[in-house]
Specification:
single chain; about 220 residues; alpha+beta; 8 helices
Length: about 220
Amino acid sequence: MSAWLRNDHLLTAGDEDRRTDLFTLLKEESEHRVSQVTAPGADWLASAGTYPRSTLSLWETRPTAPAVLPCGTVFDIVNVPSVFGRQMLDRLWEEGPGSGPVAMHRGRMLIFAVPGTASRLPALLEWEEWSDSVPPLLCHGNGDAVTIPPLTEDTTGEQSAGPRWLVAPDTRHPWLPGPEVLLWACVRAARSASTASVRVSIFPPAEQDAKVYDVSRRR
């Protein structure tokens, strides 16, 4: 049973109607931007907490504020330096299956992964010959919590240096990479960094919200 279904019993039909009203703006976007959370994506994020309705209520009053969510049940987080993370995403999107949600916070990239990845990925890396070329990874799983970006952007620019989405959640059941996929991405990124300069064209500096990923590939 999916993480969403495990928590869905906490939400009544009336809550569903109210949630539709809360996220009307998100649902009525004429063109989905990968840096913008959709209403189903917000539901999925809220399901990670113990009290999804309370989380959604908080976002109703403060949609531009970051939130803290626990890891280990709905998702794990692989926390990597931004430059190496960009190299990993290049590999995932150009040669692999794409990615699930991805965020930036304090100069590091937060890659959302299948629960259990936090414990398995470091063990897999120990057996990989390219492990010395992979920078230290911070893996957040059961018992950990992470700061995630706001649902909507702060148009005042006050949070420009705060957490932001690179690939925002856009469905109640987002595809998430597991430890084997991320191991593959780590190895490919390490190899590419050692042999040639890495292209980062999928991260245009002048327009962070540019539609740079074909998210339909991962469905």
